[in-house]
Amino acid sequence: MYLTPQHILLAGATGLTGEHLLDRLLNEPTVARVLAPSRRALAEHAHLENPVGELLELLPKLSGPVDTAFCCLGSTIKQAGSQDAFRAVDHDLVLAFAQRARELGARHLIVISALGANPGSSVFYNRVKGEMEEALKTQGWAQLTLVRPSLLLGPRAEWRIGERLAAPVMRWLPGKYRGIEATVLARALWRLALEEQDGVRIVESNQLRRLGR
Fold first, then answer.
1. I need a surface site. Which of 51, 56, 165, 171 has the fewest CB within 10 A?
2. Does residue 61 form part of some domain?
3. 1 lies in a domain?
4. Which residues make beta-bridge pairs with 212?
5. Where in this chain does the record put each NAD(P)-binding domain (predicted)?
6. DSSP string of 119-173, one letter each residue
């Protein structure tokens, strides 16, 4: 459990989970500063530093110190426009963000991956997520937490018809396959940040639901 003020780096603050996590971080008395680069400006807050622009261009300009980094980046192949564009965000950009976080002093990296992430998967989405996880493990993190939520539930700014159709069913599936509310995931992410456990930790969706209650 951290007792000293924390300096947080957050990527994906305008996304479904990221916006809930940002709200929680800004209301935590132990958080002194949240550095949250984003494409569009966020609401001002005394503890928020919000560089605006493309993340890849902003990364070299970010300054520390950073204690913990959260990566809530994520897209879909449809949203990205192609498999190559999807990989550029969900693999390449995640790795670039993580590397910069390490350079700024972060000891703990928490990354939203996906249920079924596996570098050997025949499903492109799951394979990219698995390759991203494996690549992060080679960066030498003192503490790396990979979370694998099932379908995220909650209102999104953009229309995702597949998720809208699947959501009612996903709410009733057993174990790790059941959908998880973004607010619950955000609470779980913060609780994981408070736990000191060296090495790599993989947290499946059913564990995330318990942590986020």
1. 165
2. yes
3. no
4. none
5. 12-152
6. TT-SSHHHHHHHHHHHHHHTT--SEEEEEE--SEES--SS--HHHHHHHHHHTT-
The answer as to whether 68 is a domain residue is yes
Rounded distance between C-alpha atoms, residue 158 and residue 79, angstroms: 9
Task: Write out the H or E segment, with its range, that includes residue 70.
Answer: strand 68-71
Residue-number span of the structural domain to which 160 is assigned: 6-211
pTM here is: 0.89
Residue 41 has what DSSP assignment? P
10 forms bridges with which residues in the sheet? 70
pLDDT digits (tens, 9 = 90+) for 72-131: 999 888 888 999 999 999 999 999 999 999 999 999 999 999 999 999 999 999 999 999
- 159 in a structural domain: yes
Read off the CATH number of the domain in which 150 is found.
3.40.50.720
- Following CA atoms 122, 153, 185, 130 in sequence, which dihedral angle do they give, to the nearest 10 degrees? 10
Number of domains within the chain = 1
Region for 161 from its dihedrals, namely left if φ exceeds 0, alpha if ψ lies in -120 to 50, beta otherwise: alpha
Q: What is the mean pLDDT of residues 39-45?
A: 96
